[in-house]
Amino acid sequence: MVLRPSAPDTGIVFRRVDCPPGRNAIAVSPANWVEASLCTVLRNAHDVQIRTVEHLLAALHGCGIHNALIEIDGPEVPILDGSAAPFVAHILATGLRRQDAPLNVARILKPVEVSRNGAVARLLPASSLQIAFEIDFDDAAIGHQARAFDMANGAFLRELSDCRTFCRRADVETMRQNGLALGGTLDNAVVFDGGRVLTPGGLRRPDEPVRHKMLDAMGDLYVMGRPLVGRYEGVRAGHALTGLLLQKLCATPDAYEIVTCDLPQRIRLPGAGISLRDLPLSA
User: Fold this and answer.
1) Which residues are catalytic?
2) Is 69 helix (H, G, I), strand (E, B) or coil?
3) Is the pLDDT confidence value at 145 over 90?
4) Judging by beta carbons within 10 Å of its beta carbon (0-12, 13-18, 19+), is residue 91 exposed, middle or buried?
5) Angle 31-39-27 (CA atoms, 0-180°, nearest 5)?
6) Is 136 helix (H, G, I), strand (E, B) or coil?
7) Domains recognised in the chain with CATH numbers
């Protein structure tokens, strides 16, 4: 997989280099979102798709990268260690190219909400991107967790970027019986079994699961194709519900507006003023 800079206002685009030219570009946009439960999937009009984009999109969002071409030779983004930190580290080590061009954002004007089976995802007006999340699992090692952060001033890098995907041992066994997650190991996911953490070294943070759900939301919200200015709240939500929330937002024109960022707003977007020093030591 190779990340390349692209021109202003072109957004984030995946190019499947293993597919025929002219049919292999997949723009990151709600129009290309496909509902899936275990990851975020995008598919173009030629039925070419890319899966598990959420951690990379979270890294791009958190680093303030608004235009990029991602060349990849398969249908799935590498999972790496299960977090966004390896992507962030490589991006910042390579360096960012500042673009002298206006930046348009989607500003939330009124609440939008979706729910399913007791899970809720909503967007509310706010002066910056804020993410709040709540989870509740029967497993004693997870239990009830809740967190909220303003994503300005490098908060994504410091607070969320190193938090890994997680699952329960029973889920792993079910997925493998169905031919899924065959490449998953204890090196790229935190696996829980009741009150135990099976992954060597344990948790990076006591509330790593809810922070990872916030990381996922950071990536899923970037499917909007541009930065969002508003507050996202998730209660037991997942990839599918956040995607449905964006679809409902796009179908509710008076719930948001596209505006050009002024300087005070721009410096409160994720990615403003970040550096490698913002990455946690675990990254």
Assistant:
1) 239
2) strand
3) yes
4) buried
5) 30
6) strand
7) 2-278 (3.30.1700.10)
